[in-house]
């Protein structure tokens, strides 16, 4: 499973948040464990991407969702949920 986490430190406390999670295709995970590949390398070998740096662009989330959610939006989810405590201090 892939998930992005965010920790915001306000000088006193940490405020944590996370993105939604998704599963990589089994064929990619097999390459990661059998050949010690990075996700980028596995994605390229399987044919998901011709970009060996997919993680620095749209990310696998962008590829697997066919552009419906890119890496930037995925990271934004984690930041927004980390802000929940700060936006609602009376409850936390």
The parts where pLDDT drops under 50 for at least 5 residues are: none
Helix and strand succession? EEHHHHH
State the CATH topology. Answer: Maf protein
Give the overall silhouette.
elongated
What's the overall average pLDDT, rounded? Answer: 93
* Alpha-carbon distance between the two ends: 28 Å
Strand content: 5-15%
Please tally the helical runs, counting DSSP H or I stretches of 4 or more residues: 5
Number of strands: 2
The neighbouring-strand order within the major sheet is 1-2
**Which structural class fits the helix and strand makeup?**
alpha+beta
Sum this structure up briefly.
The chain has about 90 residues and is α+β, with helices and mostly antiparallel strands. The protein has helices spanning about 25-35, 40-45, 60-65, 70-80, 85; strands at about 5-10, 15-20. It has one domain (about 5-90): Maf protein (Alpha-Beta Complex), CATH 3.90.950.
Describe this protein with a few key phrases:
92 residues; alpha+beta; Maf protein; two-stranded antiparallel sheet
Characterize the structure shown.
- By secondary structure, the protein is α+β, with helices and mostly antiparallel strands.
- The protein has one domain (5-91): Maf protein, CATH 3.90.950.
- Helix content is 42%, strand content 11%.
- It has helices at residues 26-34, 39-46, 59-64, 71-82, 84-87, and strands spanning 5-9, 14-18.
- It has a two-stranded antiparallel ribbon.
- Strand 1 and strand 2 form a beta hairpin.
- The protein is elongated.
- The two termini are 28 Å apart.
